[in-house]
Structures
1.
Amino acid sequence: MLTPIHVSLESLNLLTLAPMLIAIAGGLTILILDLLNDKLDKSLYVMITILFLFIDLGAILGLNINVRGFFDVILIDGISIISQILIIAGSMLFIPLALTSKRFHEYSYPEFFALFLFMVAGFQFMVTSDNLILIFVGIETASLALYTLIALHNRANSYEAAVKYFTMGALSAAFFAMGSAVIYGLTGSVELYKVAEVMSTRLNETGLMIAIFGSSALLLVAFGFKLSLFPFHTWAPDVYEGASAPLAGYMSVVPKVAALVVSIRIFGMYIDLGIEWVRIVIIALAVITMTLSNIMALVQQDVKRMLAYSSISHAGFIMAALALDTTEGTTSIFFYYTLFMFTNLGAFSMLWISRHKNRRFNEQYDHPYEKFSGFIHIMPVGAVIMALFMLSLAGVPPFSVFWGKIYVMQAAVNSGYIWLAIVMGINSAISAYYYLKLVVYMFLKEPVKDVDTVYYNLSKPLLAIIGLATLATVTAIFYAQPLLSYLYYMISASGY
């Protein structure tokens, strides 16, 4: 006779699930309201989304560190709290853009905001678990919603972008599922801390090492797709080009933060076990990714595609820090992406300042460099802000991303990888060319004739978000150290 299992609510620690449940409840609320009355003003859905994001953030800040919940599949440590704060902060920067007077087509659908909240919940599940099954559920929840958000832009290249992203996402999911299956077959567990315990006792078995090689290779491919690492990066420029400019900026930061957290947990486990070839492969991928994407960015004719390749380069930069597997290296990842988030989302949002229905400057691209010729004469403040974002992304001191790059290189040097820090410095120098190219067009070129036919979007929500991104880029000069200290404390307290 089977003995009944008694589970108390206290042992489940359901508060650890609260942030994700709040996001899901927000999405369901929007769908129910639309079902009851489909004539409600769409601004209401924007405000509901922002409200639930604020409640979600409050729930995250109220969590205790280093606790487990819901049958021990939820892990609340320093990394999960920091990454959730970044996910919510990035979402709060993005969603108010839907309040602008001249909106993108997709903002007229209530389903857009419901899917957005479901996507946020998926990202939160990814970063708050070390259970491979729940991580997979989070990946698919977020990815399926994001494919649809891209397609809702309702342009020919948006459908193409959504299909490409879906295809690459399906391949990534398949590799992740196969890699997880191999791990389960080896250890009988999908909990990473239990997997590490089992593997540590059997590392001298030849057959096990071959299987570990297979599982780690499959997982590296899976996250190579998610993080757009070479040679799995080819989808990124086309997908960013097909998505709306603000959504492309959002995609360049938030999904990558979630994927990086999972990568830290999985590949950090392999490196901690002394499997050095995983570290070597990650460093090789990082160096090749940042170098080739920088070279590709040099020859782009479209600013959005240039920023897409730039985002790939930054992802490679951060992967090098992941391979270090030190507290300083892990801290540098979150420090870098906190600073990068505001600057990059601001730069993509600036592309929405000047918009036109027809491709008047170039038959192939929406945002060619010529579009920004003489921008200083047309919109002086806008040109200065965009130049500020470009200088920050290039790592020019003393702007925000400079401090992120310096700290990543410092972590590499302190870990004994001086050559890696030199490679990072060289790549930063290369990237300065294509960032400054846009600055040259804005400040030193003459405006294209008939610029009055171009619409300039000066709505207050867009200007407020760009202003906030600018403020964060500048004030990071003075407050980088307190942020760094907080991140270091949270990550070291979790044993990373």
Note: Residues 13-493 form one domain.
2.
Amino acid sequence: MKTAIFFLTLFTSLTVLASQPRKVLIIGMDGVRTDALQQANTPNIDALISSGFYTYESWHEGITVSGPSWSTIMCGVEYPKHGVTSNSYSGSNYNQYPYFTRHAKDCLPNLYEVQIVQWAPMSDNVYNDGWDQKIKVCDGCGANSVSAAQTQLANPNLDVLFVYFDECDLTGHSTGFNPANPAYITAIQTVDGHIGNIITALHNRPNYANEDWVILITTDHGGIGTGHGGNTNSERKIWWVGSGNNVIAKQLTNVQDPGSYAIGNHNATLALSNPSQADIAVTALDHLFRGTNCNPVNPSWNLDGTSWLDSLHSEQPAGLDETALSDVKIFPNPATDILTLWFDNSQQENVSYSVYDMNGRTLLHEQEVSMMNAHKLNLDVQSLRKGNYLVKVQVGARCIVQRFSME
């Protein structure tokens, strides 16, 4: 069980928030590569990134297929404990290591928890999971998932909702898991639209202003060619997004690869200081249990994850005045070809940027650039050599300077 609390603080005042009902929304996007999500036009996910926290530098520590991966995400333990090693779910050990929703309900029995999935085994082959409803729709039927989610979010008694989309994985298997594949990118953008509809339904809850929601969006694995299940970077490198009513915007960086149980090189010590899929469940439990006598890291549960909620956060960089552009996030760093920056430009102010070397010489510059949406700007930096650089972004009267490197 991880004991170190790291990452970022989600709440600015737990005392003020203690009276608000705590609720969790988890959205799963099956089979979405990190680099493909970066290149896709995903305004709804980008809006959550802009106002929340994220990492594009996490590493899968288990078996890169759906059954084991979603079991780790939902149980808070890796496959040597939950026992699922394939999509058949044979060998599962959910009685000893159940879904986090089971732990949540054991402590708070009045919670109302609902799962909506497009892949039937996630419902049919999982037991001891605590769901009050397990809703199945057909494979690839994202609109049906949205409709079911809208119905559930209209219920004021809803406390936990998990919505799973498999369109991206289906497209990857049929046409290729590749950011250069237009069909794969289109599938990601389609699911982003579904997510936007779900977030709208969440915000339209009659009592939303008096509720404290945490939203977690993640994938289970990447892919290579038309498959996955191996240990390449394209399959193991994954991402998360976290948002909610009371979060501090932050990018999780400098993440090291702790290796994989699947190939026998897992470094447990290194894993303690890096994000893992098992953290999703523990973060959800920590949020639900705040203000109660329940312990989200109950030693008897023997969880492998840790919570993000009580972690450290960075203050605004020194030297930036009150007109500075805040909450700018940058990925990947180091970069190879495309450098993506996320920030709020909902007022559609003029945007320009300059890239400098460490001697202050201007290498790239563009006025009045076009953003992909109100939050996302892609810069072509492939002409830069390996080394360290500064990028200055001007948005109206606001600006920010950040350091990045090329590899």
Note: The first helix runs from residue 14 to 17.
3.
Amino acid sequence: MNHIEETARRMKLESPVLAACPGEQRNEALSRVRDALIAQKDRIFAANQKDLARAEESGVAPAILGRLKFDDHKLADVTAGIDQIISLPDPVGKISLARELDQGLTLYRESCPIGVIGVIFEARPDAMVQISSLCLKSGNCAILKGGSETRATNQVLFQIIHEAAVSAGLPEDCLAQADSHQEIDDLLTCDRYVDLLIPRGSNAFVRYIMDHTKIPVMGHADGICHIYVDRAADIERAIPVVVDAKVQYTAACNAAETLLVHRDIAPAFLPRLAEAFREEGVTIRGTREVQDLIPCEPADEEDFRTEYLALIISVKLVDSVEEAVRHINLYGSHHTDAIMTEDPNAARTFMSLVDSAGVYQNCSTRFADGFRYGFGAEVGISTGKIHARGPVGLEGLMTYKYKLFGQGQTVGDYASGKRQFHFRDLPEQEG
């Protein structure tokens, strides 16, 4: 048995213990984590500088280098996220169904943690804080594997978080860290002990995880997000929103990669947008019709299937909201897509028919984020339709169990007709 398998086995045994810890105790652990991160920030920043220097030497792109940085701004963000998570109601033990099957035979459906979760993420060290905080709050044990690009930062962050959580009385095996690439492969084989895997990273990385494990996987492979500028869009409103969706954090999975523009508004809209993009250094790749309206590079079929994660955007003209929807559902990754329009009917059509985890009207796709949704943080974004969808916060880390309380009843009594069910729903708080 390798190190990761042994760790996962211990976690499997400890996970019910963590789930049974009172919500106040888990909140206390998070408070200690927050305070420890602030108190030891110089230690974290020093480790991060080593990672950044190594990344620069290896020629990491500037957009990616920004994701590796952990500074005062990132620290403020993650500690604010912890405070928000603490303020959220305890997700464990919530009753969603209370039913009397017969006199003295009562059924409850109660929320509980998933159990042992493996989270594998690339780049951003702040993800270490966000993910571990959500797992602790939700009562899930977690094996955390951060990217090699920020190994030193992740090691320091994990040590601080783990020590603070254990000091609050949480089980020693509430959190564990995997360091090497080999340990990722070891983790993928732990289907006896690990209940769920959540990978965060490139398309190729997530696809590799999905193809090499029997453990259920929750996540998304691509972030091909769209903005459709409708014929009834307010141009003054649309331009800053489109620019924000592309530029505000180019390397994020919720950044816009394709812009669809209604043919009727294109002559007025595209030249102004092109100027705004030029000022931000954005390269436009457009179809022949787009090239007739603004200077841009040619776009081919592959561009509309591409997650650039760079200052590049593909542009196409469409005749209707329905055509925009068809394009998005065909080429998109079902992550987050937006419409810019003042026409409520067009918005209703778009938001009903686009088959994505997030559909927006008149705002940037960059809002697809657990912190911005008020979840405190997220362990990832799921584009699947089973269990959890969109930014995965506390609720996405919960499942449920049925608790049945009886007084000696047997199924034989009901099969023989001696007793009968009468199924009476009770107020859920009775659980």
Note: The CA atoms of residues 37 and 307 lie 34 Å apart.
4.
Amino acid sequence: MTPSAKEFVGELTFRALTNYEVLSDWKDGETGLEHIYWARWADIFVIAPASANTIAKLRFGITDNFLTSVALAFDKKIVVAPAMNTKMYENPATKENLEVLKQRGFIITNPDCGELACGEEGNGKLADIEDILLDTAYAIYEKPLKSKTVLITAGGTREHFDPIRYISNASSGKMGYALAKWSYILGAKKVYLISAPVCEKPISKIETINVVSANDMFEKVKLLYKEADIIIMNSAVADFRPKSYSSSKLKKDKETNTIELVPNPDILKFLGENKKDNQLLVGFAAESENLVENAIGKLKRKNLDCIVANELSVFSKDTHKGYIIFKNLEKIEIPQTTKEKSAYFILKTISEKALRVYN
């Protein structure tokens, strides 16, 4: 903690909330040179919130408090999350200081707009904790996807037959969003996430394109797929849609309640037929029986480079397990774990195995 930080919240409060010691002085601890000890101990240094004063000191190498002394002695990645009054954040001096830090390799987590500590509204509110964690992970992990553009689809499409009712499925979009996040963390220069309706929170640093129906998704995929080095079709796209659509709510007292269905476009098949030689196309197969056999059949029919096969039981769950199957029929088991960890495992495995794309 800096001296200014202790004016807002006391050391004892932080100690009680975290059950960790709070360091605010060079002499705290046993060595008497704690700023050197902690600079060598840590893998990553996150300064959140970072005031305009601290940012200026970081730029000019001023070490008049414990925090900036550790920062100057730290030789790995530093994440800085600015938080201050809007006018202070938008001041040319602060903007210049942040730009210089970026050039030196600091990772800046941009602040949000909202109510500030001073009571005003504007840009300068401390970024959401998820955004700070995203940049922290980005700072730590290697970058096997460096220079790659990744296109991912997520969620279950909705096929409306009137303004408020539709046919859909139980896909939560959790895996697609996790794949998008980890694509960014692992170094992708650009990540497009085409998302059907889900309850997942948008991811900063990811361009999310929201769609509703299979036809909507198909149109967006056709616009973007040529840019992508890696295409991951995780979305649970409805195979059929209602043949007709009523602009007014259908009444239950109609003589018939039959809804006639027609096929939706096969987006994965289109991509398999039109992908370039230097593109990697990844599909997903959710099966209730004969998991591996059915996934291999889909892999071959759709001309995929690899497929992730999982049972229906993972739908709408936070956990995932299954297999990654490559075009040469090499099969790698995905152990049961969270979808977050599984997404990392999938991308890391693909980056190591798909040598024709990454080398």
Note: The chain has two domains: 5-140, 149-358.
